[in-house]
Amino acid sequence: MSGHTDMVLVNEEGIRIDGRKTDEKRNIKIEAGVLKNADGSCYLEIGKNKVLCAVYGPRECRMRHLQDPTKAIITVKYNMETYSVSDRKRPGTDRRSVEISKLISEALSAVVMTELYPRTTIDVYIEILQANAGTRCAGLTAASVALADAGIPMRDIVPAIACGKADGKVLLDLNKEEDNFGQADVPIAIVPSTDEIVLLQMDGNMTREELEYGLDMAFKAAHEVADLQKDALLRKYTNKKKEASE
Ligand code: ADP
Questions:
Q1: Angle formed at CA 189 by CA 187 and CA 193, multiple of 5 degrees
Q2: Cα–Cα distance, 159 to 46 (Å, whole number)
Q3: 131 CA → ligand 1 middle, Å
Q4: I need a labelling partner for 91 at 20 to 30 A (CA). Which of 28, 118, 130, 155 fits?
Q5: Hey, which of 80, 141, 163 would you mutate to test ligand 1's pocket, going by the most ligand atoms within 8 Å of its Cβ?
Q6: 186 pairs with which residues across the strands?
Q7: With bands split at pLDDT 50, 70 and 90, how would you rate the model's confidence at 63?
Q8: Does the predicted model carry a pTM greater than 0.85?
């Protein structure tokens, strides 16, 4: 975000280094139910990001002091694999992963009907296999598909995507170079049926007008991501039905 480069991130025609237009998101691939032994799972790619998510639960919360008698707690473990970035990342939990886990848990708690499962825990494991900026959005998008795949009742799916600014232009879905050398990064996650915001962060600087323009792009893109999430779930269940009838 605060870095400097002589590299042109957005050219005079408004085309970015990966060939996208300013309001274009990266290619997205979503597959639900990819792991046999988890209750729910999802594999997601957005551009060069690759994410795997597994969900277990709701199951009895063994750690009594963490139990909530009124609802389930959603425990998220966001983990960036050592080999996910170009310089080998030190394995294990760090401040960044703790913070990202917490904010993903809060975003999911807004849609999961946790009140149906008091004293239980729903465990969400997010593995970042390959990172290229936007992994918290990719992880959250995958996690809500995995929760739905696990059959956990939710008010809605949660799509997440970032907007931001690089080379003085407002952009959708920043890649690594744009994130590193740009002026702002604004990840956002929404509840599509109500347009509620369940995650919004801003790193860097933008004018109010730029932010409003960026959020408009992000909302529109998030609705498109939600359609892809629903498609993935539908595909999984139509395939399962087909297998059962064969
Ligand atoms: P997000 O992935 O949600 O955009 P950040 O803005 O913190 O989160 O990170 C941007 C990108 O920087 C990541 O997607 C990843 O490509 C890279 N990155 C983050 N942490 C590390 C790290 N410890 N080592 C190397 N690269 C990292």
A1: 155
A2: 12
A3: 7
A4: 28
A5: 80
A6: 163
A7: confident
A8: yes
